From TrEMBL:
Transmembrane segments annotated in the record for this chain: none
SUPFAM superfamilies in the cross-refs: FAD/NAD(P)-binding domain, Succinate dehydrogenase/fumarate reductase flavoprotein C-terminal domain, Succinate dehydrogenase/fumarate reductase flavoprotein, catalytic domain
GO biological-process terms attached to the record: anaerobic respiration
Bias (Basic and acidic residues) ranges: 16-27
GO cellular component: plasma membrane
Region feature (Disordered): 1-27
InterPro entries to which the protein is assigned, alphabetical: FAD-dep_OxRdtase_2_FAD-bd, FAD/NAD-bd_sf, Fum_R/Succ_DH_flav-like_C_sf, Fum_Rdtase/Succ_DH_flav-like_C, SdhA/FrdA/AprA, Succ_DH/fumarate_Rdtase_cat_sf
This protein's UniProt keywords: Flavoprotein, Oxidoreductase
PANTHER family: SUCCINATE DEHYDROGENASE 2 FLAVOPROTEIN SUBUNIT, SUCCINATE DEHYDROGENASE FLAVOPROTEIN SUBUNIT
Domain of life: Bacteria
Coiled-coil stretches: none
Protein's name in the database: Succinate dehydrogenase or fumarate reductase flavoprotein subunit
Lineage: Bacteria, Pseudomonadati, Pseudomonadota, Gammaproteobacteria, Thiotrichales
Active site: R48 (proton acceptor)
Amino acid sequence: MSESLRNDGRVWVPKKMGDKRPPHEIPEDERDYFLERKYPAFGNLVPRDVASRNAKQVCDEGRGVGVTGLAVYLDFKEAIERRGEEAIRTKYGNLFQIYEKITDENAYLEPMKIYPAVHYTMGGLWVDYNLMTTIPGLYSLGEANFSEHGANRLGASALMQTLAEGYFVVPRTIAAYLATMPYDKVPTDHPAFKEAEQDVKKRINRILALKGDKTVDEYHKELGLILWNHCGMSRNAAGLKQAKEEIKKLQGAFWENLNMVGTNDELNQTLEKAIRVADFLEMSQLMVDDALHRNESCGCHFREEYQTKEGEAQRDDENFAYVAAWEYKGKGAVLHKENLVFDELKPTQRSYK
């Protein structure tokens, strides 16, 4: 559900572990409005990384709600009493309707059940100020590149990057690049083209030849669970090292025991997904390495070993005030550091207490 709902909804769980009573049977003094309790100045309006990390934490403690225990309540009762149901319906009616279609529950009468979900990876392709990648002529726009948001995804980032880069930057920088290009076309018999084409064909044929026991969806879910448990909203060195080993084992199993179906002579979405998951297995190892090397907490990179007494992210600007740009080398990656210089506004410790 949209995070805008936290403008009026109150997030809570039962104080007691394993309390399976319906929400209307749990009195106020037995509820833990944990964001309001921990962050009195901001309450339910803390940034998404803080809210998500705390929601997962209370569920890990055994205080989650619903059948799975992997949810917290988002309650609109107080807002409806204060502003009226019609005002809430006008503001969030479409979201309440979506929720009811999915869950068959009326959020005007009982709290929503919500839980954090992975939908974004920090960073992206390295680009220069013209939005060109390290490959001449290849540009990366929007959330696919790293340039705008640093360690914490800002609200409405997709819209902001689309407008800024799509309307104002790229039309000029691409035009300037094309103006310098020769008019001659690159033929498909060029050695570089042939080499790239053969590499792709070999990769596809290797995947198609796999006739093991497990589907690509199974490998995809296993990889996702490893990252969720060890390289998600909260991580530590021991968990990251364990994830690295588990991903390597999973990658080996993928290339030996994947059950591939279909051919390359027709639309084959299973093949498309297998190629993607093979890439994910490479990318996920880089994510773990990147999280392991950065011995600090910054934005959504929260290392449990590096936090304040209040449980907030503790940066190390002296040693880690740089962009970590990793260059792919086929096997492994090389780190390039781009120092961040702050002339006017200096970084400070954030606090939502």
